[in-house]
Design goal:
Number of strands: 6
InterPro entries: DLC_sf (IPR037177), Dynein_light_chain_typ-1/2 (IPR001372), EF-hand-dom_pair (IPR011992)
Distance between the termini: 35 Å
Protein name: EF-hand domain-containing protein
Organism: Mesocestoides corti (Flatworm)
CATH architecture of the largest domain: 2-Layer Sandwich
Pfam family, one: Dynein_light
Largest sheet: 4 strands, antiparallel
CATH topology of the largest domain: Protein Inhibitor Of Neuronal Nitric Oxide Synthase
GO cellular component, one term: dynein complex
Radius of gyration: 20 Å
Strand order of the largest sheet: 3-5-6-4
Structural class: alpha+beta
Strand content: 15-25%
C-alpha cells in the first residue's frame, strides 16, 4: 500500500519539485479513471489544513517514512521509468535489479534477437552466455509466450521479468553455494 502511494506521488510530481498541487492530483485522478473519493482521501490525509499543496515532506511525515529514503526511492523510480521509456516496446512486469543493469539487459536482448532472429532456443542460449560472461555464472533465461505462472528463488538484486514484443523474458541469477 505504501509503495503504491509513493509511486502515485512520484508520478503526480512530474516536475520533481517535492510538491504536488490539487490541480496535478485532479489530473492524475482523471488520467487513471479514479473516483472523486481519491481526491478527498488524499486531501484528508495529506492536506487537512486545505493549503492546496502536498509536500513530499508532509507526505513522508503522515506515512511515517524517512524523507531521505523516499527521495532515494524517487530517484530509483525515475531511473527505472527512463530505462523503460528508452525501450518503448518493452513492458516491465517485475524487477529486483538496478536500472543500469536492466538497461544493459535490454541491449543484450536486442543483440540476441538481432543475431538469432526467430530462434528462441538460440536467443536464450546467447543471452545466458552473455550474462554469465558479464555478471558471473548461474544466470537463467526463460522465454514465455502467453500467460504463465512462475515461482522461483534468485539472488537478491538479480531478477528481471519483462515483455518485449510477443516474448516474455524471465531472467534471474541464482546464488553460488
Amino acid at each position: 500500500m505504501v509503495e503504491d502511494l509513493k509511486e502515485a506521488y512520484f508520478t503526480i510530481d512530474k516536475g520533481h519539485t517535492d510538491v504536488i498541487t490539487m490541480e496535478a492530483l485532479e489530473q492524475y485522478r482523471q488520467e487513471n479513471d479514479l473516483s472523486e473519493a481519491f481526491i478527498k482521501q488524499w486531501k484528508k490525509l495529506f492536506d487537512p489544513e486545505n493549503t492546496g499543496v502536498i509536500t513530499l515532506e508532509r507526505f513522508c511525515e503522515k506515512l511515517g517514512l524517512d524523507y531521505s529514503d523516499v527521495r532515494e526511492d524517487r530517484d530509483k523510480f525515475e531511473n527505472a521509468a527512463a530505462a523503460s521509456q528508452a525501450q518503448p516496446e518493452i513492458l516491465q512486469i517485475a524487477e529486483d535489479m538496478e536500472p543500469d543493469r536492466q538497461k544493459a539487459i535490454f541491449e543484450f536482448v536486442q543483440q540476441a534477437e538481432d543475431n538469432n532472429k526467430d530462434s528462441e532456443r538460440n536467443v536464450v542460449r546467447w543471452l545466458k552466455a552473455k550474462l554469465d560472461e558479464e555478471y558471473g555464472r548461474l544466470w537463467h533465461v526463460i522465454i514465455v509466450k502467453g500467460q504463465y505462472y512462475a515461482f522461483y528463488s534468485y539472488e537478491a538484486g538479480y531478477s528481471f521479468c519483462f515483455k518485449k514484443g510477443h516474448r516474455i523474458y524471465i531472467i534471474y541469477k541464482t546464488p553460488s553455494c
